[in-house]
Amino acid sequence: MSRLGQIDTARYRGTPFILVGVAALTLFALAGPAVEHRSTQSFRNVDCVLVLVDVSSSATDHADWLTSQTSARFAISGLCSRPAGLIVFSGDAYAAADMSVDHLQMGQTLSLLDAETVPNDGSRPERALALAHERLSQAKVIAGDVILLTDGGGLSEVSLLDVASLASQNTSVSIVANGEPTAQKQTHAAIGNGRVLRAEDTNALN
């Protein structure tokens, strides 16, 4: 984990997030039109994309892992001025990069992710989805997209409820699947008003 920069090992609820590669950006929830600050590459109150990456051993050992990493980097590079953020999870969920338009930095962070990134074993996508909901709510994001990169481990009725909660917040949830697009993955994407994509479907992410 030291490769990713300053790491805070606190858990995701009510505690500090991991800081990866860049300084943390404070999110101010302001009413009114969006304002972009090019000097700091931060943003206020605009739509954004959150990428949630499963770094559990089952996901990172999958044959599609490197392809899904490439897909995520491709998707982020095509966002233009839309801000994006990064959340990583296995047995717990952490913010790896705050929402920003610094897509180059985020792509570099993505390339460093592996099974050693998160110290907690397991696969808890519901925690990553809950953290995404929390951060979008705090930022008062008008509309957003969540892209969940996963092999499907840990998807359950609990994570489905989190997807439904995001959808009610005007945020779509799409899944980039390591392996086959199972019925469980399809159900999550349908509830989230999103899509299920194979890891190699990079063009469909833009």
The end-to-end span amounts to 30 Å
Uncertain segments are: 5-42
Beta content comes to 15-25%
User: How many helix segments?
Assistant: 6
Mean pLDDT: 78
Shape: globular
Structural class: alpha/beta
Largest sheet report: 6 strands, mixed
Radius of gyration: 15 Å
Tell me roughly what share of residues is in helical segments.
Answer: 25-40%
Total number of beta strands: 8
Sketch the topology as an H/E string, one letter per element.
Answer: EEEHHEEHHEHEHE
Main β-sheet, spatial strand arrangement? 5-4-3-6-7-8
Task: Write the topology of this structure.
Elements: E1 35-37, E2 42-44, E3 48-54, H1 57-60, H2 65-77, E4 84-89, E5 93-100, H3 103-112, H4 125-138, E6 144-150, H5 157-168, E7 171-177, H6 183-191, E8 196-198
Parallel strand pairs: 3-4, 3-6, 6-7, 7-8
Antiparallel strand pairs: 1-2, 4-5
Helix pairs in contact: 2-3, 4-5, 5-6
